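Give me structure tokens for this 267-residue protein.
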Amino acid sequence: MRQDEPLIELRGVCAGYGARALVANATARVCGGEMVTFLGANGTGKSTLLKTICGEMAPMCGDAFVCGKNTRTVSRGELARLLAVVNTDRVEGDGLTVRELVGMGRYPYTGFFGRLGREDYRIVDEALEAVGMESYAARSVGSLSDGERQKTMVARALAQATPVIILDEPTAFLDVASRVELNALLASLAERQGKAVLMTSHDVAQALEQSSRVWLLTGDGALTDAVPEELIAAHNEGRPDSPLDRLFKNRAVEFDARRLDFRAISN
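Here you go.
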């Protein structure tokens, strides 16, 4: 696929549970080489939309595509070769070495209990090097800091050798320095390896500073797909449809364009 063709594409997608749509008529894309950050208040449907993109849920309406394949019809095995997922949950793997955990990313090609061959180990080692964890290969996962664990999980996603990587709040349990480092790493990997990276986050400032584009989901189910400059301009111009100003509507906070973040409304 060409660099400007979307590796993730939503066409009028509605996502939710039962008859309740949390996301309505979403149209958005992520191209190769882009890191897109997905912002939204808790409960607005970010994780629900991610599950829809990952094929875990069917869209209530519209269609989601990964590398041109409709997630309604693509097989789970084929999707595992197109899309790697890093979840929020703290990884359980204390009895494994870092290299063994990263090697689990090769399961679409070897089977869950399959043996890794020379080529698999080469890919694993390249993934560790790409995230700066090659010197930790023989370390126990249980000995790692939270930041090192997340880098290891990114390496496992890289070892899966997919064009798309989706991360659900990967920085949720990290300190400030580790959050900045991981965001910079993901942006660099997207650019250097031509991958489409989509991650959910609550870190508005980091999203606006480091992302190629931002998906912004407001409480009314509307999804905005825009470059950070467009979002900031809409706020600065006082547009009534400014997505940043609707992000936490009816909450006692306001967007501060100087800080690229939210602050409490002054009385």
